[in-house]
Amino acid sequence: YDVPALALSYSDLNRILERAPYKEAEPKKRFFTVLKQMPDPENIVAFSTLVFDGEAFEVLDNCVYLHCKNGAAKAKLNNTLIERKLQVPATTRNLNTMHKMLHLAMEPPV
């Protein structure tokens, strides 16, 4: 069984965080689905037509930015759905985890 891996550099993480929409949203309701590669444009177009109550999203480059107004536990727009609709491997992380990964990426290796 192969498990896909995704490695991001400091500059990748920083770019994702700087470009993030929904900055006015409560931090614990902001999520980032990082895509292993850019999806096909037609998959992005089809995905962009989806509508879920209390959820907003935006696809920019290799990241789907999520605002789950009712929290992640009740969200319909989850990692599995995003991977299936965009047809690329992905990983979803919350804002705190993204900041922690950015901090860790700055630290020199031990």
Textual characterization of the structure:
- With 110 residues, the chain is an alpha+beta fold.
- It is 35% helix and 21% strand.
- The chain is built from 4 helices and 4 strands.
- It has helices at residues 10-19, 41-48, 79-86, 95-106; strands spanning 30-35, 55-60, 63-68, 90-94.
- The chain has a 4-stranded antiparallel β-sheet with strand order 2-3-1-4.
- Helix 1 packs antiparallel against helix 4 (95-106).
- The longest helix has 12 residues, at 95-106.
- The radius of gyration is 14 Å and the shape is globular.
- It starts with 9 loop residues before the first helix and ends with a helix.
- 19% of the residues are buried.
- The model has no long low-confidence stretch (mean pLDDT 94).
Which radius of gyration do the C-alpha atoms yield? 14 Å
Strand and helix order: HEHEEHEH
Could you say which overall geometry the principal axes of the C-alpha atoms support?
A: globular
Q: How many extended strands?
A: 4
Which spans have pLDDT < 50 for at least 5 consecutive residues? none
The largest pleated sheet is described as:
4 strands, antiparallel
From the helix content, strand content and strand pairing, which structural class follows?
A: alpha+beta
Helix content: 25-40%
Treating each run of at least 4 consecutive H or I residues as one helix, how many helices?
Answer: 4
Strand content: 15-25%
Mean pLDDT: 94
Strand order of the largest sheet: 2-3-1-4
Q: Separation of termini?
A: 30 Å
Layout of helices and strands, plus pairs?
Layout: H1 10-19, E1 30-35, H2 41-48, E2 55-60, E3 63-68, H3 79-86, E4 90-94, H4 95-106
Antiparallel strand pairs: 1-3, 1-4, 2-3
Helix pairs in contact: 1-4
